[in-house]
Amino acid sequence: MQAWRVHRNGEPGEVMRLEEAERPEPADGQVALRVRAANINFPDALLCRGEYQVRPPLPFTPGVEICGETEDGRRVIATPALPYGGLSEYAVADESAVFAAPEALDDAEAAALHVGYQTGWFGLHRRARLRTGETLLVHAAAGGVGSAAVQLGKAAGATVIGVVGGPDKARVALELGCDLVIDRRTDDLVAAVKEATGGRGADVVYDPVGGEAFTRSTKCVAFEGRIVVVGFASGTIPTPALGHALVKNYSIMGLHWGLYTGKDPAAVAACHEELTALVARGAIRPLISERVPMKGAADAVQRVADGSTTGRVVVLPEGAPR
Hints:
The protein is α/β, with parallel strands linked by helices. It has helices spanning 12-15, 42-49, 107-111, 114-127, 144-155, 167-176, 189-196, 212-218, 242-248, 258-263, 265-280, 297-306; strands at residues 2-6, 16-20, 30-39, 66-69, 75-78, 90-94, 98-100, 135-139, 159-164, 180-183, 202-207, 221-229, 251-254, 288-293, 312-316. The two termini are 19 Å apart. The model has no long low-confidence stretch (mean pLDDT 96).
């Protein structure tokens, strides 16, 4: 089979190699899957760099989210068990990490439903307790993780302010349903949020970026607001000024969604049911900006790492349904 493999850590475009490899065999408690579509996530770039929370042994295959097919023909979504990731023709996954793919989504869309939307749902509902009528500020609103949070925020009845970089991404964020879009390159984010909220600020901030995005968020978060730290796509991990959080009376909460798969798998399964219901009624749908062939995977992972993509970029193995 063909599989992208990483033999040394570095930038995805430099260290990913498309090779012939042995088909992985499932261990006890695992299932074998034919990959129908593999969604690219920022953690795939971190895995290549050796900077992710999990460091699989070299060589490994990236790809943490797929739509696949079981040996008995069921169409499923799964998080593959590393080192046999999804940027391959075949993968393996723990039985507990396999869920039915919603019928309303095609393979590429189904491949992009799990990680980003589960992260958004847990961040907004489990951690921040987002309420109807509140204002949600989403950084990188046109990206894969951000676009999911925008849709989930609107589905929850929130007013959603999206932060993007550039006019093209601003158009995407508006199409996703943002009530207001702020271009961080040209707009004063803090002033714009305060003006839009009558001086109150954002009740919930969803931050997959870190760095300056986090710093600005602390200046426009509301009284009793909640900042959900999801990741650090900027490459800079901020150091919170806890005295500032005390004086302004806001909360900073981290979200590592992967922990729930081990500590509360029932909650993950319940979330999947909720997401499937939201898909069925048309409230959410993954934004697929590109469907690329297997040979383009390394370039696609690099572009996701560089922040030059919008929505989701999905890899379709040779012969996979389109």
